[in-house]
Amino acid sequence: MVDPALAKLGFFWDDVPKHEDQQITTQHGTVATVAAAFFDEMERRSEAANPLKLGGPISRDEWRSARGKQPAVVDRWFYEDVGVFIAPGGTGKTTLLLFQMIHIVLGLDLFGYEVRSAGPVILLTAEDSRETLVARLRFICHELGLTAEQVQEVRDSVIITDVSGMGIKLTTVEKDVVMPSKQLDRLIVQIGLLCPSLVVIDPMVSFGVGESRVNDAEQGMIDAARRIRNAVRCAVLYVHHTGKMNAREKTTDQYSGRGGSALADGARMVHVLQRLDPAEWTSATSDTLGPQDSGFVLARSKMTWCEPQPDVYLKRRNYTFERIAAVDPTEGAGAITRQNAEKVHQFLKDEFLKGNKHTGRTLQALKLMPRASMRDAIERLMTDNRLVSEAVTTGRGGARTFLRPVDQAVTT
C-alpha cells in the first residue's frame, strides 16, 4: 500500500521539492530521504553500475554471496530484471497486464504460478487514459469477486500514471548517441520511494527516441530499464507491438516484436501473445470457444533465469482470463473432427426436415468446410452410427444413395 503523503513529491517530471529536509514516513515506519539526497544516491549507484575503472579482485564475501539468478517476482514468469511483453494491437494485452498486476499486488497465484514478491505495481501509460485503465481494473476486480479489503489494496497499490501527449522520454540523443534522459533520473526517484515489485511501461515506443535508428534506440531503452532495475531492484516490463508480418503469421519467438533485435537480445524475459481462431484454439486445447470468448496463446519465448517454459493457453471472457491446459496434438485434432461432425450432423438434420437429401459430393460443393475436414466429419459420424448411407427408394437416375442422420426416420 502506498502512503498518500508520497503524493506531495509530485510526478517525476515536476520540479524537485524546495524543502530538502522534508521527510516522509511510510506505513511500514521507514523514512524516505529528501529528493535531493535521493538524487545523490542514484548518481552513486549509477557510477557503481557503470564504473569508470576496472573492478578489483573478488572478495570472500562477494564470492560466497553472489546469486546465480535474479529473484522471482512471479515464479517462472517475472523476475527482477528487464522484460518485454509483445502482442499485436487490439489483442487486449493491456487488460491482460492489469489482470496480472492485481494478482501481484494481492499475492494471488497467477495462472498456477506462485507470486514470490507481492507489492505495488507501477504503470506508466502513454496510450490508454488513466480513467480507462481504472475502469478496467474495477471490472476485473468485480468479475474476480474480490473482497472490499482486496479492492482497497488494488486501489492503493496499482499506481497508474498517464503521460500521454506530454512528450515524456526515458532516452535522448546526445552527440548522435542514444543516452538515458534526465527525466529517467527523476522517474527513478519516484519509483524508488514506492518500492514496487513491477514497473510496466506502455507502449515502449512512446518513451524512446523513435525508430529511425532502430537498434540504437532499443538498446537505449534496455539501458534505461536496467538503471531502474539496478536502483530499485524490481522487474521492469516494456509493452511492445509485433511486426506486421509477425502478427499475420502469428509468430511467438523472441524476435516477434516490431523493429530490430536489440530489444529481445537485451531483455531477460520475452512474452509474446497471439490470438487464436476457434479451430486453432480447439486443436491446441480440445476446448471450445463460446460466443463471448476469445482464445490466446502466451509464449514465454525467452526466460533467462529459469528453464524453458511451455506455452500457456488463455481463454478470455469479458475482463478475466482462465488458463486452459494444452492437449496432445492427436487429441486436439480429434476435438476439431468432433466439432465438424456436429456441424455436419445438424446441417443434414435441418436439410432432411426440409426434404433435401445430400451426398458427400453435394456437401463438398456447398463448401461448409475444407474437403478433408468434411470427409473426416462424415467418416466420424458413420463410425459413431449417427449417419448412414440410405438407398433412394423413388425416382430414376442420379444418386442412388444419400446421407441420412440415424435419428431422422425415412418417410415414403
Which strand-content bin applies to the residues? 15-25%
Structural class: alpha/beta
CATH superfamily of the largest domain: P-loop containing nucleotide triphosphate hydrolases
Determine the N-to-C terminus distance: 77 Å
Mean pLDDT: 86
Q: What descriptive keywords fit this protein?
A:
412 residues, alpha/beta, Rossmann fold, Arc Repressor Mutant, subunit A, 2 domains, nine-stranded mixed sheet, two-stranded antiparallel ribbon, 13 helices, 17 strands, 38% helix
Task: Please give a structural write-up.
The chain is α/β, with parallel strands linked by helices and 412 residues long. It folds into 2 domains: 70-326, Rossmann fold (3-Layer(aba) Sandwich); 330-405, Arc Repressor Mutant, subunit A. The protein has 13 helices and 17 strands. It has helices at residues 35-49, 60-65, 93-106, 130-144, 148-157, 182-194, 214-232, 244-249, 262-266, 278-285, 329-353, 360-366, 371-383; strands at 24-25, 31-32, 72-74, 78-79, 82-87, 121-125, 158-162, 171-174, 177-180, 198-202, 235-241, 269-276, 293-303, 312-317, 320-324, 387-391, 401-405. The strands form 5 sheets. A 9-stranded mixed β-sheet has the order 7-6-10-11-5-12-13-14-15. The chain has a two-stranded antiparallel ribbon with strand order 1-2. Strands 3-4 form a two-stranded antiparallel sheet. α6 runs parallel beside α7 (214-232). The chain starts with 23 loop residues before the first strand and ends in a 7-residue tail after the last strand. The model is unreliable at 15-32 (pLDDT under 50).
